[in-house]
Amino acid sequence: MDRITEFLKDARPCFVATADGDQPCVRPQGFSMVYDGKLCFCTADGKATSKELKKNPKVEIAAVNGGKFIRIRGKAEFFAEDGAAKQALEMMPQLEKMIGPGKFEIFAVTGGTAVIADLASGEAETIEF
Questions:
Q1: Which of 16, 62, 108, 128 is found 20 to 30 A from 28 (Cα to Cα)?
Q2: What is the pLDDT of residues 32-42, one digit of tens each?
Q3: Are residues 33 and 99 in contact, defined by beta-carbon separation less than 8 angstroms?
């Protein structure tokens, strides 16, 4: 998990891909964290990201840093408890204003894989989590 979080920290923004029916939807995301051992991102219940992930939890996240990229694939799992949101807001207080409108939500990507690859050489590392 450390390799994934370090890559994302240095590669902001990342891009979150969801699906609205048969239409792919991609959005920039500038926040990630680990909570309860899980890779987490944020949204709000009134936003399309939240609605799409609740209908179809399959998600992909991608980011580029220099000559390398990461692609994360898994399922979105929303946290029911407030601890994850509290940690996120402590890490980045401006999220509360940036996320609105709606209730601030945290989702984890679970049961997934991350691929970190070099664009020039094609060498790749796969991390399961």
A1: 128
A2: 999 999 999 99
A3: no
Phi, psi of 2 (to 5 degrees): -60, -40
pLDDT at 103: 81
- Look at the chain and count its residues: 129
User: What tokens appear for 66 in the block?
Assistant: 């220099």
The answer to whether 107 and 76 are in contact (CB under 8 A) is yes
Listed as own residue / partner, the contacts of 89-94 with beta carbons closer than 8 Å and 24 or more positions apart are 91/31, 91/33, 92/31
Cα distance between residue 76 and residue 123, in whole Å: 28
- Which residues is 76 bridged to in the sheet? 109
Encoded tokens for 27 = 């959005």
Helix (H) or strand (E) holding 25: strand 23-29
Q: What contacts 20, CB < 8 A, 6 or more positions away?
A: 48, 52
The runs of H, that is alpha helices, within the chain are: 2-10, 48-55, 83-91, 95-99
Q: Are 12 and 63 in contact (CB under 8 A)?
A: yes
